Structure formats: C-alpha cells, structure tokens
Amino acid sequence: MNDGQELRRRQAYSIGDVQVVPAAAALGAEIRGVDLTQALSAETLDAVNQAWSEHEVLLFRDLDLTVEQHLAFAGAIGDLEPANLATPLTAKYPDLIEISNVDYDTGTPVKNRLGNSEAYWHTDMSYREVPPKASCLIARELPPDGGDTSFCSMYLAYEAMGDDLRAEVEGLTAVHDESRNAAGKLREGYEDVTDPELTPGPRHPIIRTHPVTGRKALFLGRRPYAYIPGLSVAESEELLDRLWAHATQARFVWRHRWRLGDMVLWDNRCSMHRRDAFDGQYRRVLHRTQISGDRPY
Ligand code: OGA
Ligand code: MN
Predict the structure, then answer these.
(1) CATH class held by domain 8-291
(2) Contact 4, 159 (CB under 8 A)
(3) For the chain, what are the domain ranges?
(4) Are 140 and 295 in contact (CB under 8 A)?
(5) Contact 258, 158 (CB under 8 A)
(6) Whose Cα sits closest to atom 4 in ligand 1?
(7) Over the stretch 176-216, which tens digit does the pLDDT of each residue have?
(8) CB under 6 Å to ligand 1: residues?
(9) Is the pTM of this model over 0.90?
(10) To test ligand 1's pocket by mutation, which of 286, 287, 291 has the most ligand atoms within 8 angstroms of CB?
(11) How far apart are CA 292 and CA 194, in angstroms?
C-alpha cells in the first residue's frame, strides 16, 4: 500500500516568484506572491499550474478582486464553461454562478438551491458527459461561522485502495445522477426517480487517469442514486458504500475555513468536496466559475 504522499511536498517552497505553502493535510496549498489584479505572465501561470498539479486545490487569500478579475484568472486556467443555473448576475456574466442562500428579490437568506444545509461529498457537474476540470470559488459574503468547505484527495484514495478493492472496480463504470444537486434537491425538469438502475446521467469510469499528471484517481462524483451497470442494485449499493467509506476518510481530507478575500481553485479530476451547514439567518454568497475539461478516461 502506498499513501502517495511522497508525490507532494509538505514544506513551503517557491517556484520563481510564486510561494507555495502546503496545507497541513492530505492536499491543498496556499499560493502567495501572485498579483491576481493583473494578467499573469507565462512564468507565473506555469508556476501556478505546477503547484496545482501537485496539491490539487489552491487557496489565494486577502484578495479584493472584481468579478472581471476573478473571471480573468479562471479564464487563464482554461476555457470557462457557462453557468448551469440562471441567477441575476448570470445575465451580465454568463460564466458565473452565485453559490448563495440569498433570495435575489428580497435580499434575505432563504433555503433555495444549496441553501444553508450541508452539501454532501461531490465532484462538480460530474453528471455531465464532459465535466468541468476545475471550479474557482471566491467568497463575497460569509456567515460568522459554519459553511467550511472540505476537499478530499481522490489520488490518495485510489493509491490507498487495497489490491482486492482495486481489482474489484478496475474497468467498471458508474452512473452519475444528473437529476439532483449536492443538497439532494431535484433539479428543474427532472422526475424523482429512486430506482438506481433508472438514474439519469452519464457513465464514467470509476478509476480515471488525470490528463495532465498521468496519475490515477478514484472518480465517484456523488453517492445518492449512483449505480454500477452490470451489477445488481444490491451489489452496486454494497460496492459503492465500500468505495465511499474508503474515499472519504479523514486522512484524505483538507478542511478549509473561509475568510473574506479567499478564493479556492480545485481540480475536479482528482478531488471531491463537501460543505458544512451554517446558520440560515446569515447570508453566505460566493461566486463560482467552471473551467472546461475532457471526457474522463
Ligand atoms: C460549489 C460548492 C461549496 C461551498 O461551489 O461547487 O460545492 O462551500 N460549494 O459553498
Ligand atoms: Mn460543488
């Protein structure tokens, strides 16, 4: 068994002018010394991409970015993907999603969409045939506490699988439910189908290869209503439960407590994330961009 940690440095280091401060956890690093209000030079962008390949999730702090600057940074990482939800800002910025618990008409907290409840472990938009490779989330308004976002390394989860479990899932695919969001709410236009064999959504390999690093990662997407074609529902449920229990162990996780001025770039090809619930009387507003990816293989 190999826990993969030799592939990731744990001490702070620099790549040119870019400082990389690894999180004291399985994944994640803070990036310092980059001015995100300006277009990045080729060297700086290379350094950021190199650190991202190594740490999966990057944190930038103490920012005061305009929406345009956020879009420009995400656009330097890759092509932006249009928002999958229409919100008032989307009319002006079609690539921006507001992750918020605020009612757009009244400006008060509500439980719409992700609301203030827990968002369970997931990979963004894995229910697409070609899911985005990354998401870039910037905090605009935060509650006094709660709403932490945790990230889980699917490289480490893959590498720490026992040989038996790995052999069991090699070559298998899973269906990723496209009908419900990460808070379990049914998306508009979908029926409430509860038989996993009938779950709508694409089939993706359970073990995927990262197109940039070449490393293998577990790819689970989202647990509810997932299904492994070729198995009975009972077998599929049993195997998925084992995979999820394995993949979401604390030793693969980095938990991020948000501060205003934080922006996090995460790699959907090798990580999952979840969000804690928070007190629904407070406003929590973040802006997300999605960066296009390739079909998982
Ligand atoms: C997301 C997401 C978590 C959060 O933006 O994709 O899962 O902390 N958000 O709001
Ligand atoms: Mn998400």
Answers:
(1) alpha beta
(2) yes
(3) 8-291
(4) no
(5) no
(6) 275
(7) 999 998 888 899 899 999 999 999 999 999 999 999 999 99
(8) 99, 119, 124, 135, 137, 149, 182, 273, 275, 286, 288
(9) yes
(10) 286
(11) 30
